C-alpha cells in the first residue's frame, strides 16, 4: 500500500496514487514478545495474524497502548448464553431492548469495572457531522473530516430523517438529539399505532457540551473541547474505524489495494471518509481519471484508497452491537437485489427465511471486525457490507461503526413477525424519496391502508419531514408482509422518487 501525506497526484506521471488517512495515526505491530512501531509502507509485508493497532496514543485510554489497549486482545471471544459460531459467539436480538438500553448497559459495565459511577447525562446523537457546510448541526472542518461533497442543498434530511428513523428504535433510556426538538406532528402516534412493543423516545434539542456525554453516530470535533464531557468512544479510534482504509488492517478478505489508478483498470477509487455512494469512482479510462481529478480539486483533496474492481453478484449488509463485556448482539441482515435493468436496487430486502444463511455467510467477516474493534477499545453498534462474486467469494468493502440505515427496519420486521408472522419487508430511504401530499394526508392514508390490510401487510413511516408545506414529504418508509411483489407495489405507491422538473 503506498501512502502520501502531501500530494495526491504524482506530477511525474500523472497517476493518482493512494493517499491514505493512516499517515496521521501511529501504527503498532504486535509480536509474541514485543510491540513495535511501523509505517504504512510496510503493511503488505506484515502477516494479518499480527494485528496492527492504530491509535492516537496520547489520547487513547489516557495511557500507553500497553496499559490500556491490549489487555483483552489475545483471549478468544467467549460469551455466556450465546450460540457458538466458531470462535465468535453471538446472541440474537430479543426484541425487548433498544439502542439507548444497550448504551446504558455498556456504560454501566465500564463504570463498574473502573470503580466509578455511570455518567447520568447521556445523549444519543444519530446526526452525522459535515465538512462541506457550516449549516449542519455539527461541523468538522479540520480533524475528523467527512467528505460529503458536493455540499447538500439542505441539511434537513441529515437533521431529521436519520435521527427520527433511529429514534423509532431508540427506547427511552437516553434522549435522541433532534435539532427541531420534536418529530413531525403525528409521527410518534403513527409509530405507537403500527410498531408492536414500541417504546417512545424522548428528544433533546441541544447538547450541553460540559455536561452531556455523547454517543456519537460519527466523531464530532466540537465534543473534544477541553471542558467537554466527551464522547462514548475515543474519537480518534472511531474516526479510524469509519475510514475505508481501515478495512485492509482487519482482514485479507477484501478487495486488493492498488498503488495507482493507471496500472490496473478498471479500478475503484474511494474517499476514505465519505458516506453512501459519495466519493466513489470507477476508473475505466483517462476521462474517468480526469473526472476524479476534478473531484479532488473541488472537494479539498480528501484522502482515498484505490482497489481492484470486482464483478459483484450479491450485496449483503448486517447489523450488530458489540458490548464492552464481549457479548455481540445480532440484529440481522439485509440484501440489495438487482432490478430488471441489472442494477442493484437501493431498496433493502428483508427476508426472515434467509437470515440464518446470510448470517453464516457474513460471520467470518464479522469475527475479524469485532476482534479488531475490541482490540482498539471500541464498542457499540456496527454494520458491515460484504459483496459476493459469482463464485461465492466474499469481499468486506465497508465497515460502519455506528447504527446503520436498515437496522430499524429489520427490528420492525421482527416485531411485526411476532404479531402477524410476517416474513418479508422492503425498506426505502436512499435518495430523494417522497410522498406527494402533506404529512397529515400521509398518516391518514397509511392508517386506512393498514386498517384494511391488518394481518396481511403493514406500512410503517420510519421518518419524514415536509419538504414543501402541504405538498411534498421526504420520507423513509417500509412495507412488511408475506409477499415481496405486494410489498413492492405498496412501496411504489407511497414512496416515490423526485419528479423531474420539465
From TrEMBL:
This protein's record includes keyword ATP-binding: yes
GO molecular function terms noted in the UniProt entry: ATP binding; metal ion binding
InterPro entries: Asp-Met_ligase, ATP-grasp, ATP-grasp_PylC-type
Domain ATP-grasp, chain residue ranges per copy: 239-431
Entry keyword annotation includes Ribonucleoprotein: no
Keyword vocabulary terms for this entry: ATP-binding, Nucleotide-binding
Residue numbers spanned by region Disordered: 1-20
Descriptive protein name: ATP-grasp domain-containing protein
Organism of this sequence: Fistulifera solaris (Oleaginous diatom)
Amino acid at each position: 500500500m503506498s501512502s502520501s501525506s502531501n500530494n495526491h497526484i504524482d506530477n511525474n506521471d500523472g497517476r493518482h496514487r493512494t493517499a491514505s488517512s493512516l499517515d496521521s495515526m501511529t501504527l503498532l505491530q504486535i509480536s509474541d514478545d514485543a510491540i513495535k512501531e511501523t509505517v504504512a509502507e510496510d503493511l503488505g509485508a506484515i502477516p494479518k495474524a499480527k494485528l496492527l493497532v492504530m491509535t492516537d496514543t496520547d489520547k487513547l485510554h489516557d495511557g500507553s497502548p500497553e496499559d490500556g489497549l491490549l489487555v483483552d486482545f489475545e483471549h478468544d471471544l467467549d460469551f455466556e448464553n450465546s450460540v457458538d459460531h466458531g470462535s465468535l459467539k453471538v446472541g440474537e436480538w430479543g426484541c425487548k431492548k433498544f439502542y439507548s438500553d444497550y448504551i446504558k448497559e455498556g456504560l454501566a459495565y465500564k463504570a463498574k469495572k473502573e470503580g466509578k459511577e455511570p455518567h447520568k447525562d447521556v445523549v444519543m446523537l444519530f446526526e452525522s457531522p459535515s465538512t462541506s457546510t457550516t449549516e449542519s448541526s455539527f461541523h468538522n472542518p479540520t480533524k475528523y473530516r467527512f467528505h460529503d461533497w458536493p455540499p447538500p442543498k439542505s441539511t434537513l434530511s441529515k437533521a431529521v430523517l436519520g435521527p427520527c428513523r433511529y429514534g423509532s428504535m431508540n427506547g427511552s433510556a437516553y434522549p435522541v438529539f433532534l435539532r427541531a426538538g420534536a418529530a413531525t406532528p403525528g409521527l410518534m402516534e403513527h409509530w405507537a399505532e403500527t410498531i408492536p412493543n414500541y417504546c417512545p423516545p424522548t428528544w433533546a434539542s441541544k447538547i450541553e457540551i460540559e455536561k452531556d456525554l455523547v454517543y456519537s453516530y460519527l466523531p464530532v470535533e466540537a465534543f473534544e473541547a477541553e471542558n467537554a464531557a466527551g464522547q462514548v468512544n475515543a474519537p480518534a479510534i472511531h474516526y479510524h474505524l469509519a475510514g475505508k482504509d481501515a478495512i485492509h488492517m482487519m482482514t485479507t478478505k477484501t478487495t486488493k489495494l492498488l498503488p495507482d489508478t493507471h496500472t490496473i483498470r478498471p479500478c475503484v477509487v474511494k474517499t476514505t471518509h465519505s458516506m453512501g455512494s459519495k466519493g466513489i469512482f470507477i476508473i475505466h479510462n483517462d476521462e474517468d481519471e480526469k473526472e476524479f481529478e476534478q473531484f479532488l480539486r473541488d472537494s479539498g483533496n480528501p484522502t482515498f484508497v484505490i482497489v481492484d474492481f470486482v464483478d459483484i453478484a450479491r450485496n449483503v449488509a448486517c447489523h450488530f452491537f458489540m458490548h464492552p463485556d464481549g457479548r455481540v448482539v445480532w440484529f440481522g441482515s439485509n440484501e440489495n437485489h438487482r432490478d430488471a435493468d441489472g442494477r442493484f436496487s437501493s431498496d433493502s430486502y428483508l427476508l426472515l427465511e434467509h437470515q440464518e444463511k446470510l448470517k453464516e455467510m457474513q460471520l467470518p467477516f464479522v469475527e475479524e471486525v469485532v476482534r479488531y474493534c475490541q482490540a482498539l477499545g471500541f464498542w457499540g453498534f456496527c454494520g458491515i457490507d460484504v459483496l459476493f462474486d459469482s463464485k461465492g467469494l466474499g469481499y468486506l468493502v465497508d465497515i460502519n461503526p455506528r447504527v446503520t440505515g436498515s437496522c430499524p427496519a429489520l427490528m420492525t420486521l421482527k416485531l411485526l413477525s411476532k404479531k402477524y408472522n410476517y416474513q418479508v419487508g422492503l425498506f426505502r430511504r436512499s435518495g430523494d424519496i417522497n410522498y406527494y401530499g402533506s404529512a397529515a394526508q400521509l398518516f391518514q392514508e397509511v392508517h386506512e391502508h393498514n386498517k384494511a390490510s391488518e394481518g396481511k401487510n403493514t406500512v410503517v413511516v420510519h421518518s419524514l419531514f415536509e419538504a414543501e408545506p402541504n405538498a411534498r414529504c421526504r420520507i423513509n418508509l417500509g412495507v412488511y408482509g408475506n409477499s415481496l411483489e405486494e410489498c413492492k407495489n405498496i412501496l411504489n405507491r407511497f414512496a416515490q422518487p423526485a419528479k423531474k422538473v420539465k
